[in-house]
UniProtKB/TrEMBL annotation:
Keywords: Coiled coil
Coiled coil: 89-116
Protein name stated in the entry: DUF632 domain-containing protein
Pfam families linked: DUF632 (PF04782)
Ranges where the DUF632 domain occurs: 60-304
Organism: Triticum turgidum subsp. durum (Durum wheat)
Length: 423
């Protein structure tokens, strides 16, 4: 569900500013945009005018995912809510741009009227110009009303649909991390209790079928590393983008104090609960790093590749001693070249989806460097994965428990202010 929401959330980077207000510190509606003084609007306009919105019939897979999400979400379809917010924000931007154009025309007519007065122009021209100015003023007033109406619809969607769906998503992620923590604790215990894994592997003689399995395992390990890093980054990108969009709707000017600039706090501004929770959510996930897990995964994959290279080298030496194995050597070299290309491609993909940098695993093995040069124990490197995973999932579980507790407190606060009961 979260990955399905990601494209809609990424598009929201281009959304028009939606002004949220509190009684004392923020405006009560979307303020009139002054002509030639809104670079954000112009920037967003360029983004949206160059983007093509494709409306096509959904595939069977998309319909199934939508159906599954409808069943999973008790508060409605989160993807649908994000799409509606995107469409209303797009409409808001169009109306603001239209209002800006009318203001520019209005200012030009005011200048024309002033010039006519200074030149002593005919009365008919002055009256005609004043009439056009009144028409433009009426259009501007209507445009402002439309902008305020759309802003109200966005606020209602945000508070009535996005807020409860966000709470439900947080609860689901909290349960997910709890289950994952328990699973990784079991896995860590199992690998810690295992004995003589490395000695059994060192004494084994591998045939060609075994070598193919090791090669397949290596490529699967790199896919696992890439998917894990991409999955975690997708969650972080989701909440970061959502929080960035919400912050654009808050008028906030940092205040200098003796202790420096205080951190941004929507709660101190009296913002609605979703502002508070998403800000805490973004800060919470930013403190959790998956780098130790990815590093441990890479070390284990490097050891597996080192094992493959070691036995492949032994096979090569045996063939070189046999003069009739030239064709077998050529086949082996071709297989090794294909393996190197596959490794390079998968490591490039890993760099694209994570913050990891460094030499590719295939290059590390070929030059005798990398994690396997310091520790070639498969059992120890596998245990390191689950130790790092246990730490990571425990931190994630605690973060979402605290976040869920904070969300419940915000619900109770709002319910107390409105005199209703917490659902």
């Amino acid at each position: 569900m979260l990955l399905a929401c990601r494209p809609q959330v990424q598009r929201r980077r281009m959304f028009m500013t939606m002004r949220w207000c509190s009684r004392s510190r923020l405006s009560s509606s979307v303020p009139p945009v002054q002509p030639a003084r809104c670079p954000r609007c112009l920037r967003l306009a360029r983004c949206l005018t160059t983007r093509k919105v494709l409306v096509s019939k959904p595939t069977m897979e998309e319909e199934f995912l939508r159906f599954e999400e409808d069943k999973a979400m008790g508060c409605g379809n989160l993807s649908s809510t994000l799409q509606k917010l995107y469409m209303w924000e797009r409409k808001l931007l169009q109306e603001v741009k239209a209002e800006e154009e009318e203001r520019l025309k209005y200012d030009r007519k005011r200048q024309d009227l002033q010039m006519l007065d200074e030149k002593g122009a005919e009365t008919e021209k002055i009256i005609a110009t004043e009439k056009e100015i009144r028409k433009l003023s009426t259009r501007i007033s209507i445009a402002i009303q439309v902008v305020n109406t759309i802003s109200g619809k966005i606020s209602k969607l945000r508070d009535d649909e996005l807020w409860p769906q966000t709470c439900e998503l947080i609860q689901g992620l909290m349960r997910m991390w709890d289950v994952m923590l328990e699973c990784h604790q079991i896995q860590l215990h199992a690998i810690s209790q295992a004995k003589n894994i490395d000695s059994m592997i060192d004494g084994a003689r591998f045939g060609e079928d075994h070598m193919d399995l090791i090669k397949h395992l290596e490529l699967q390990l790199l896919d696992w590393t890439t998917c894990f890093a991409g999955w975690v980054n997708a969650q972080k990108n989701y909440v970061t983008t959502l929080n960035d969009w919400l912050r654009k709707g808050v008028e906030y000017v940092p205040e200098e104090t003796d202790d420096g600039v205080p951190p941004f706090s929507p709660g101190r501004l009296g913002a609605p609960p979703i502002f508070v929770i998403c800000n805490s959510w973004a800060a919470g996930v930013a403190r959790i790093s998956e780098k130790d897990v990815v590093k441990a995964m890479q070390a284990f994959a490097s050891n597996v590749l080192h094992l493959w290279e070691k036995h492949r080298s032994q096979q090569r030496q045996g063939m070189m001693a046999n003069k009739g194995m030239d064709r077998g050597l050529r086949v082996m070299e071709k297989d090794e070249q294909a393996m190197r290309k596959a490794l390079e491609a998968k490591n490039k993909k890993l760099v694209l989806v994570s913050d990891q940098t460094g030499v590719s695993l295939s290059a590390q093995v070929l030059h005798g460097a990398g994690p396997q040069a310091e520790n070639s124990s498969l059992q120890l490197s596998l245990r390191n994965i689950f130790e790092a995973m246990e730490t990571f999932t425990a931190a994630s579980s605690n973060t979402y428990k605290e976040l869920n507790l904070r969300a419940e407190e915000e619900k109770a606060r709002v319910a107390g202010e409105s005199g209703s009961s917490v659902p």
